[in-house]
Design brief:
mainly alpha; two-stranded antiparallel sheet; globular
């Protein structure tokens, strides 16, 4: 099945989905982020087929999200996040907050996150980089950006 190419759309959401919009990629990134970095480990953790995992890893390497590093004389590699990939994990942290709030049920969140700076258990909170106030969908106006070709539409978000 051929994937739709969103990479050329004038929309940052579409372009991001082009990188991680199929279900395995965010889970692969999660595994690498938590230290599950070798092919066999990732495959065992996710129960993903070797073919699909190979395709997803190659795609993420091509896009500069992860890189391969040899760990053995044989052609064996581990995968590490690049700077670009580490920032993409921040997107996953926002997904975690939403999932914990709306989908965790009575059992509660499956994982807790301790912040290095303060030592407290917490979650990601979206804030404006300029004033520090909360920045959620109802707190912003959409305006044309330099890549919007003069139009603000749903496709340019």
């Amino acid at each position: 099945m051929q994937r739709t190419d969103f990479s050329e759309m004038a929309c940052s959401i579409a372009r991001t989905l082009d990188v991680i919009g199929e279900p395995w990629s965010p889970l692969i990134l999660r595994d690498i982020w938590v230290g599950i970095s070798r092919f066999e480990q990732i495959q065992a953790d996710l129960g993903i087929s070797r073919k699909v995992l190979t395709e997803r890893l190659n795609y993420l390497v091509e896009r500069g999200i992860i890189e391969r590093r040899p760990y053995d004389r044989r052609p064996r590699y581990e995968y590490v996040l690049t700077g670009k990939g580490a920032e993409l994990v921040d997107v996953l942290m926002v997904m975690v907050r939403w999932g914990d709030k709306w989908l965790a049920g009575e059992a509660g969140p499956p994982v807790l996150y301790r912040h290095h700076a303060c030592g407290q258990i917490g979650s990601v909170d979206l804030r404006c980089e300029h004033c520090g106030q909360p920045m959620h969908a109802g707190d912003i106006d959409l305006m044309p950006g330099p890549g919007a070709a003069g139009m603000v539409t749903a496709a340019a978000v």
